Amino acid sequence: MVVIMSMLLNFMFPPPSSLVVTAMSVVSFVVLANSGFSEIRGKHLNYSKFWNANSGNAAAAQRQIKLSGRAGMLLLYTPAFLAGAASFWIFPHEGLRSTLLHSAVTLHYFKRDFEVLFVHKFSGSMVLDSAISITLSYFSSVVTMIYAQHLTRELPEPPINLMYPGIVLFLVGIMGNFYHHYLLSKLRGAGEKEYKIPKGGLFELVICPHYLFEIIVFYGVSFISQTLYSFSFAIGTTIYLLGRSYATRKWYLSKFEDFPNHVKAVIPFIF
Fold first, then answer.
1. DSSP string covering the chain, please?
2. With 70 as the cut, is the pLDDT of residue 213 above it?
3. Which residues contact 6 (CB under 8 A, 6 or more apart)?
4. Residue 19 reports pLDDT greater than 60
5. How far apart are CA 129 and CA 133, in angstroms?
6. Residue among 184, 221, 234 at smallest CA distance from 206
C-alpha cells in the first residue's frame, strides 16, 4: 500500500487536509460508480431515451413532475457553469494550473448550455427528481474540484507534470464531444421526433462516441488538476458512462432490427 501511494503521489498533489474534500472524493466515486452499475441493471436516470424509465404504472407516471427536455438540460448544466465562472472571482490569481482548471470546467458547462440552446433537438421530457439529483451532482463536483485545487496553492508541484497533456486531452475531448452532438442533431428533420441509428464519425464504430469524448474531457481536467478529487471523479464518471452507453446500445438493439452488431457501446472494437 505504501508503494502504491508513493507511485500515485508522483502524479498528483498530496491528499487534501480537508476532510470534506477527502470525503467528497470517496462519495463522488461511489455514487457515480453505483449509477453506472444501476444503468447496466436497467435502473436508469430519467433523461434522454430513458426519460420515462422506472416510472412504474401509469398512475405513478402521471404523478411525476416533468420538465421539457430543453428546460431540464439547462437546469442540469447552468448552476455548474455559474460555479465555474464565479471561481475566477472567488479564487483569483492562484497560478496557471488553477486558471486552466477554472477555464476548463467553465468552458465545458458553457458548451453544454450552448448545445442545449442551439444544437440539440429534444423528443422527450425529464423527470424533475432526476434533474435535481444530476444538477446537484454537476454543481457539487465543480465546487469541490475548484476548492480542492485551491487547497494545493502552497503545496509543491507533483514530480510528474500532467498539466500540458491534460490541456491536449481536454481540447480533443471537448471538440470530439461537440462534433458528435452536432451529428446527432442532424439526424432529425424539422418536426421529427423519432430516433434513428446515428451515422458518421465514430458512430460507425460505437453508439456513444459523445460519451467517449466526454470521458476524455474529464481525464483532461484531472490531468490539469492532478488532485485526488479530480482523479476519483474522472474514474467514477468513466464507470457511469460505460454503464450508460451499455444501456443505450441495448436500447438500440431492442428498437432497431437492422442495428449493426459490430457497433460497440463506447470503446471501438472492445466495449
1. -HHHHHHHTTTSPPPPS-HHHHHHHHHHHHHHHHHHHHHHHT---SSGGGTTTT--SHHHHHHS-EEEHHHHHHHHHHHHHHHHHHHHHHS-S--HHHHHHHHHHHHHHHHHHHHHHHT----SEEEHHHHHHHHHHHHHHHHHHHHHHHTTTTSPPPSS--HHHHHHHHHHHHHHHHHHHHHHHTSS-TT--------SGGGGTBS-HHHHHHHHHHHHHHHHH--HHHHHHHHHHHHHHHHHHHHHHHHHHHH-TT--TT-BSSSTTT-
2. yes
3. none
4. yes
5. 6
6. 184
10 Å Cβ neighbour count for 223? 23
What's CA 233's distance to the chain center, in Å?
9
- The identity of residue 236, as a single letter, is G
The pTM of the full predicted model, rounded to 2 decimals, is 0.92
pLDDT at 57: 44
- Cell 460507425, residue? 204
C-alpha 42/C-alpha 54 separation (Å) is: 9
Q: Are 185 and 119 in contact (CB under 8 A)?
A: yes
